[in-house]
Amino acid sequence: MHGVAELLGAAAVAYLASRRFGLPAIPLLILAGAVLALVAPPPAEIRDAGLVLGVSFLLFLAGMELDSRRLRHHGRAVLRVGLVQFVVLAVLGWGLATLMGLSAVEAGYVALALPASSTLVGVRLLRQRQQVFESVGRLVLGVLLLQDVLVLLTIPLVTEFSQGTAAVALKTLQVAGLTAVAWALRRWLAPVFLRWVDESELLLLGSLTVLFVLLGACRLLDLPVVVGAFLAGVAFSRFPVHGVLRAELAPLGDFFTAIFFTSLGALVRVPTVDELVMAGVFVAVVVGLTPPLVRWMAERAGLTSRSALEAGLLLSQTSEISLVVGLAGMLQGDISESLFVVIAMVTTVTMLLTPFLSTEDATEAFMTLFTGPPADTGTPPTDHVLLLGAGSTGMPLLEDLILSGCRVVVLDDDPAVVRQVREAGVEAILGEAWDPEVLRAAGVDEARVVVSTIRRPRDNAAALALATGSVVVRVFESDDADWVQARGGEPILYSEAAAEALVDWWDGAREALARERRQRVAQGQGEA
Amino acid sequence: MSDLQLLQDLGWVVAGATGMLLVGRIAHIPPILGFILAGLLLGPVAGVLGHSESLDLFAELGIALLLFVVGLELSVAKIRSIGRTAVVGGLLQVGLTFGLGLGLALALGFAAAPAVLAGLVVAFSSTVVVVKLLDRTGDLAALHGRLAVGILLVQDVVIAVVLTVLGSLAGPEGVVDGAGGGLDAAVAGRGLLQALAGIAILAGVGWAAGRFLLRDFMGWMITLPEGLFVVALAWVMAFILGAEALQVSVELGAFIAGVILAQLPHCEELERRTHPLVDFFLAVFFVALGAGMELESMAARWPAALAFSGLILVGKPVVVALLLRLLGQAPGTAWLAGITLGQMSEFAFILAGLAASVGLVDPDFFGFVGLVGFLTIGVSAALVPVARPLAARLTATGLLQLLPGPDDPTDGDEAPLHDHVLVVGMNTLGREVVRRLHEHGDVVVAVDTDAGKLTGLPPGVRTLQGDLTHPAVLEESGLARAALLVSALRIEDANALLTYRCRSMGVPVSVHAFEPAHVEELLDLGADHLMISKLDGIGPMEAAVRRSGVMG
């Protein structure tokens, strides 16, 4: 009990710091664990139990997120960006590790640890910024998912690397077999399970049984338990199974995550100068290379420069999975304690850097660093309707505007949208609607009306300041409406319109729905 | 990795528990009994699950967290309403049932020391079993549930004293010479003082922290809910360590930690998050309990065990019911609380182990306690879920009405919601829907995970803080009886899940399709109506453009 109390206490301090300073929790948990080990080391058996259970739950929950719906948007971009980033960083990590005198096996572990980016950090930042549903969010989430799969399914190959080709081939077959089992469970067992089980207790214990069965299978096949935990999660990753289970399992996940990262921190000792140098090199590679690499690939896959850069910055850290890789290697005796300490340091530092690197200001600075002035020239249009954003919100509006016969100029940041609009014979400019220069090129000060449907209403500051005609802005939240109004614009609350439509529908449908339901209940009773 | 033995043990526990839950669904075996049976099968019968310190730790955590949850549900007002009855009734009950047990043991020819212990076995009921069962039936907050839990907590204080006394017997003076009445009164007095002083210190420190530190802190921390949860768990651990240091039971420490947080905002959120942990760790507790039993020594004294089980299952409920009636409770409530408390406490195992270790009883005594525990907990787990009809029959006998007191429960249960409209997600859309439907005359319940967003709604609108994808919140919302669910959320997964839930419950649902790309999927899932804000807003938008002179 004392050991658990110590670890939880350290975790509590880490979370307080995380809340206070707005930093990701994982590196702080590791630091808290490391400090704890210096002051009052927790008993080894508690620490080890925390590690093995923690890693199982962590990967179980990670596996559950493997929802193919996440790859529905930008699937090709995800594949390209994910694969290129993974391969380049893996090869580079392997090369650097070999240059620094590590053995081939150790270099293999580095090659797995460096390319993975953190799902826990990425998702948290995307949520905070409400970017989950923007292109950048979808791309980042997809890439993270791809990386998890790539790393976890290749761990057994690296652990068997020293045993020769035959052993690697055998492990590959075993992993493929186990994956097939998990996929079959996902396809057939999980939906039945959900239909049959209506109690939270059975839901919890039943899903954990699958977890432990697959852990046992891994033990029999001599595969790392992390693979079994992840695949068990995959077995429950189908909608709506994972949604129902997540509510049950999340608190256990929170508990064991806290215990896991502090326990892991307790394993880390004070680094030597050599280890610091090696960690420094790896940090430089991850932070320095990921953003330009992702940006380059993402831009080629059709994202705007800004989204592409934002995605790169959000992906520029190593992952909790990297820690798992390092831990598995150390416990198996494949890598030295020294390399484990290096991996832990790289992860802690890169995770702590991410929130700073991906702020609005930092992104702005990187943008000017990478991009030249806008190429659009020619005389700005006059006496037109300027439509900012012609995506899913703007497009229906655009159709009506064209039908009414007025001159419309579209400004959008998505190359695909701009192409589509031009093909329909409408003037369109590619660029960001918050950029005053782009706005001037689009004739913002000569427009009769500016209509903005862009996602973030507050990106309209420049348009509101520069326009001479009226500016009509689509908003969803009432505080954004106040903000627009205070700057002389006319906010249109789409949420209000939707609420009105709902009440109209409910007025008409209520009686019919209630009648239908009574009939169903009566039928149900008749059958019973 | 390193600790694979623990994984294997846990794997057996979880698989066994799940297996027995599934079998229990068909054979109508209550879950707790199923867990103990699973333990018996895995331990003494199959021999795959041995004693393990890690499992013990999990079991201990489970009990502590369970009491934490019990504490979280008790506001000061609820404690006041039952405090006197619980203290007086609890103390009298412990005394009376102890006497009955002692008498029965002596009549069966037990020696003095075992007879005293057998009396103690009868006196206490199981907090773990009762809370778990009441939680399932949803009666934890009902009057009889609160009374039962109150009495159990009083019992816990007595247990702390008994353990202190027994512990001191193991000291240098050695073993008492078989005379049960020969226990030193001074030692007992010291034990009582120590326990009460410990409780006072814990409660005092906790109250001060709650008063001066935590109130603002909870609101600040709730934006990082998993952080708040971990901090709360550390808070419980601090109280557990404090209780250990002050020689008070771990359960009481955890309970006090919970009660203090129960007076603060966001305690429901903590309760919901702690619940799955309790489910998991307690399953370990019960399976380990079954695995620790020894079949041969259980069989050794079966006639005596049967007699004692009868006393606990019948005698104790009658004693509790009579006492509660004398203290002014309605007959129905008194019977319900009595039936609820008819089982042996898991503490009896600890007691028997301790007594055997200081030589007060022979090893077979442990088997006797094991059989009594198995029988009474098993029967009780079957009775408590049907306690209401059972209590109604017992009330109809008119036995308790011979004593003076009110005939109806003083504590009317709040009428459950029905035909209401649940609106999830208090963004501008959600608030607007709430306002309009409320003006329209609907009974509206506003739901959000953030308590801050539930303020400033029109008066008369009910609010519910929590995540509706969570089963406990779902239950509380009365979704099954709702006329309509509206989700204004901009969380794709949650909207899909809510649609699915409503569909499977047959409740009409309207969801916010904030991206037109979601429309198809949500319709496939069976949404009755979609709020497609991006389309709904076009009308007003074009009207505004027209006002500025374009579009003819």
In short:
With 528 residues, chain A is mainly α.
What is the CATH architecture assignment of the largest domain in chain A? Up-down Bundle
The amount of beta strand of chain A, in percent, is 5-15%
Number of discrete domains of chain B:
2
Category by helix and strand content of chain A: mainly alpha
**Strand arrangement across the biggest beta sheet of chain A:** 3-2-1-4-5-6
Helix-strand sequence of chain B:
HHHHHHHHHHHHHHHHHEHEEHEHEHEHH
Mean of residue pLDDT values of chain A: 87
Number of strands of chain A: 6
- Number of spatially distinct domains of chain A: 2
CATH class of the largest domain in chain A: Mainly Alpha
Model description:
The complex is a heterodimer of chains A (528) and B (552). Chain A is mainly α and 528 residues long. In chain A, helix 12 (273-300) runs antiparallel to helix 13 (305-314) and helix 12 (273-300) packs across helix 15 (337-357). Chain A folds into 2 domains: 2-366, Up-down Bundle (Na+/H+ antiporter like fold); 385-499, NAD(P)-binding Rossmann-like Domain (Rossmann fold), CATH 3.40.50.720. Chain A contains 22 helices and 6 strands. Chain A has helices at residues 2-21, 25-39, 44-64, 75-99, 104-113, 119-128, 135-159, 165-196, 200-220, 225-235, 241-267, 273-300, 305-314, 320-332, 337-357, 360-370, 394-403, 415-423, 436-441, 461-466, 478-486, 494-527, and strands spanning 385-388, 408-412, 427-430, 449-452, 470-475, 490-493. Chain A is globular, with a radius of gyration of 27 Å. Chain A starts with a helix and ends with a helix. Chain A has a 6-stranded parallel beta sheet, sandwiched between helices. The mean pLDDT of chain A is 87. With 552 residues, chain B is mainly alpha-helical. Chain B folds into 2 domains: 4-402, Na+/H+ antiporter like fold (Up-down Bundle); 421-547, NAD(P)-binding Rossmann-like Domain (Rossmann fold, 3-Layer(aba) Sandwich), CATH 3.40.50. Chain B contains 23 helices and 6 strands. Chain B has helices at residues 4-27, 31-45, 53-72, 76-107, 112-123, 127-137, 143-169, 185-221, 225-245, 250-262, 267-291, 295-300, 302-326, 331-340, 347-357, 364-383, 387-396, 428-439, 471-477, 492-505, 519-525, 533-536, 538-547; strands at 421-424, 444-448, 462-465, 484-487, 509-512, 529-531. A 6-stranded parallel beta sheet of chain B has the order 3-2-1-4-5-6, with helices on both faces. In chain B, strand 1 (421-424), helix 18 (428-439) and strand 2 (444-448) form a beta-alpha-beta unit. In chain B, helix 3 packs parallel to helix 10, helix 4 (76-107) packs antiparallel against helix 5 and helix 7 (143-169) crosses helix 8. The relative contact order of chain B is 0.10. The model of chain B is unreliable at 171-182 (pLDDT under 50).
